[in-house]
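REQUEST FORM: STRUCTURE PREDICTION
Request ID: SP-0412
Submitted by: Lab K.M.
Chain count: 1
Length (residues): 80
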Amino acid sequence: MGRRFKRDMSLYKRRSFHCLCPAIILVSQTAALQAEIDSTVGIMRDNIYKVTERGENLNNLQDKTGKSAVDWVTEAPGSP
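STATUS: Completed
RESULT:
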C-alpha cells in the first residue's frame, strides 16, 4: 500500500504542476502585455506633451511675427 500511495501522490503532483503551468504562462503573458501597454501609454503622453509645447511655440512665433510686421509698417519711411 505504501508504494501505491507514493506513486499516486507522484502522479497527483505532476498533474497539479501541469495544471498550474498554463495559469503561470497566462499570468506571465498578461504581465508582459500590461508592461507593453504601459510603455505605449507613456510614449503617447510624451507625444501629446510635445505637440502641446510645439503649439505654444508656434503661437508665440506667430505673435512675434505679427508684431514685427505691424512695427515694420508703422516705422516704414513715408508711412502716415
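NOTES: The longest helix spans residues 2-75.
Reviewed by: T.R.
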